[in-house]
Amino acid sequence: MHKRTETICGESSIVPNFEEIGNNPNFVFNADPNFEPLTLFNENGNTVLVNSWLECANYVNGGWTNYFSDYFNGEFIYFTLVSVSFLIYLIRKRIIYSEE
Q1: How does pLDDT run along the chain (100 residues), one tens digit per residue?
Q2: C-alpha 65: how far from its chain's center?
Q3: Distance between CA atoms of 86 and 2, rounded to whole angstroms?
Q4: Please, are residues 43 and 50 in contact by the beta-carbon 8 Å criterion?
Q5: Residues whose CB falls within 8 Å of the CB of residue 52, separated by 6 or more in sequence, listed in order
Q6: CA neighbours within 13 Å on the CB side: how many for 19?
Q7: How far apart (Å, rounded) are the C-alpha atoms in residues 65 and 61?
Q8: Which of 26, 57, 80, 84 is the most exposed place for a label (fewest CB within 10 A)?
C-alpha cells in the first residue's frame, strides 16, 4: 500500500482494486462504523466526507488529500503583493507631489 494512503487513511489489511472501483459507475462504498469519518480535499478546493477505509484509499489514490494547504496558490500571493506595492507607490507619489 502507498505510504500516503497509510498516512491519511490509516493502516488496513484490505487490498483495494482501484481499477475495478473506477470502472464501475454503480459502485457503492459501505460505511464502516469503526472508521472515523474524514474530510478530504482536491486541488480545486472541493471536499468529500469519506466513511470507510476503502473509500478513503480510493480518493487518496485519485489525488485527494486531508488538508487544503497542499494546493497553496503562490501566484495569488505574488499578485496581491505586487498590487499592494503598486498601490502604496501611487499613494506615496500623490502625497509627495501634493506637498510641493
Answers
A1: 588 889 999 988 888 888 888 888 888 999 999 999 999 998 888 999 999 999 999 999 888 998 876 455 678 888 899 999 999 999 988 877 776 6
A2: 5
A3: 46
A4: no
A5: 29, 30, 31, 32, 35
A6: 0
A7: 9
A8: 26
Question: Is residue 19 classed as helix, strand or coil in its secondary structure?
Answer: helix
Residue 86 has which C-alpha cell? 503598486
At 32, list the grid cell: 464502516
DSSP string over 27-68: --PPP-TTSPPEEEE-TTS-EEEE-SHHHHHHHHHTT-BS-G
CA-wise closest residue to 59 among 89, 98, 27, 91: 27
Instruction: Spell out the domain ranges in the chain.
Output: 3-71
